[in-house]
Amino acid sequence: MEEQNISAPFVVPFADIPLSQTSVNDGFKVRRFLDHHLLSAIVPSSTVALAIVQSRGGRGLTIPPSAAGGLLVVLQGQAQMASDGRRAVKQGDVIILSAGAEYLFTGVGAEGLQALHLTFGGRSGDGLAPVLTREGLLARNEERARAMLQTPYFQLLQNGTLSSPDKRRQFRTCIRVFSDAFQRLLFTRQAMCRDEKFDSTFHEHLREELGHNRLLRGPDDSPPLPDPVLHATSTWFCQRMLLLDNLDKAVVNIVLETAGYHFHTLAQPAFAADDCAGYFSTHAEADAEHQGVGLDLLQGAHPTTYLRLHRVLEETWDMLGAMTNRIATLLNGVTS
Predict the structure, then answer these.
(1) Which domain covers residue 29, as residue numbers?
(2) Which of 139, 224, 299, 325 stands 20 to 30 A from 81 (CA)?
(3) Which DSSP helix (H) or strand (E) runs through 269?
(4) Total-model pTM
């Protein structure tokens, strides 16, 4: 689209502000200024984000938590704010939103509720921007993957350490711990799934991965390394299948398969002459596709759901980092 001259006043029609993809709840709509080509050039996105939120008459409205707080300016309508008791809010009121708090509005009048939502800070105290969309979640996943490639574990695959058959054998005894745990993860996830939307997707993934851990045994059938830290961090992923809901499990899968894709792609040439080369070539081909397991089911969630999924994603990458750093330490004495 041709650039507009923004040196003079310019009217942006309300209907021209794109409806956010997060607006999937009937009666709830979000129009973010940053999604409009002209408004995005004006709004200082690193410090403030603006959106118009609407709720149809008789429908509640939830404002998701922000890492830095913000303001809600009621443009039209009236409702009850369910926070520290119930308070009536009406057109013209300005509501101060505390950092990290969720706000629920009920009793919306027949004319509906429309408000301007201003979020400040743009980034949380730990330097992370809040993730409110599937696209933002996937972008953050790629950021974490790129950072992981610079860690000692991934450097092992590129610096010649594994050119020694003995080192490769030691490495296999380490990754067997996680490979065995991953098989338990798949079975646990399937056993705990009661949602038909996820069941077939999870089952197909289980079927494709079944028994792959046995490809790591080699002719000497060396047992997995009996290291408590490595076993504890590897088992954590299986434990999450007992506690998380299906969307969260899909995010854990995306992290593991993204890391697995990069790992097996780099490991395949390093293990080309190894007795267990088949394990690495098999996964190098399959992991790209497995990254998409459950991906479609993440579409259209509420912004507050994406905030939760973001926490799951960060937590999963952190634990994966702890596990892989432990392997690097065991092989090279590299400290994390």
Answers:
(1) 14-120
(2) 299
(3) helix 246-270
(4) 0.60
